[in-house]
UniProtKB/TrEMBL annotation:
Transmembrane segments: none annotated. InterPro entries: Ribosomal_Su5_D2-typ_SF (IPR020568), Ribsml_uS5_D2-typ_fold_subgr (IPR014721), RNase_P (IPR000100), RNase_P_CS (IPR020539). This is Ribonuclease P protein component. PROSITE patterns: RIBONUCLEASE_P (PS00648). It holds the Pfam family Ribonuclease_P. RNaseP catalyzes the removal of the 5'-leader sequence from pre-tRNA to produce the mature 5'-terminus. It can also cleave other RNA substrates such as 4.5S RNA. The protein component plays an auxiliary but essential role in vivo by binding to the 5'-leader sequence and broadening the substrate specificity of the ribozyme.
Length: 96
């Protein structure tokens, strides 16, 4: 998916479903923690997108049933970003 706003090469969104987190305060906490962790670890993805010069929109959905800890998200976010980059490389590399 491509970003539609000119000048912004990478747009990101996060969400936590109401199915597992009935109270808004819990959904907001999950989203806040995800955004913080993403901001701290997003540099490799930002560099990749700028290098490829292709705008991108990334949306992350938290689907676990328990509230995450900050440490858990800081541990998992780099893995998620590496996986996104890997998937992009596999999908954009022409097959020979």
């Amino acid at each position: 998916m491509q970003a539609e706003t000119p000048g912004e090469s990478l747009q990101t969104g996060v969400a936590a479903g109401t199915r597992h987190f009935k109270r808004a305060v819990h959904r907001n906490r999950v989203k806040r923690l995800m955004r913080e962790s993403y901001r701290l670890h997003a540099l490799p993805l930002q560099q990749y997108v700028e290098e490829k010069q292709q705008p991108m929109v990334v949306f992350m959905l938290y689907i676990d049933k328990v509230l995450p800890t900050q440490e858990l998200l800081h541990q998992k976010m780099p893995l998620v970003i590496k996986r996104i980059i890997k998937e992009l490389d596999e999908n954009t590399t022409p097959a020979t």
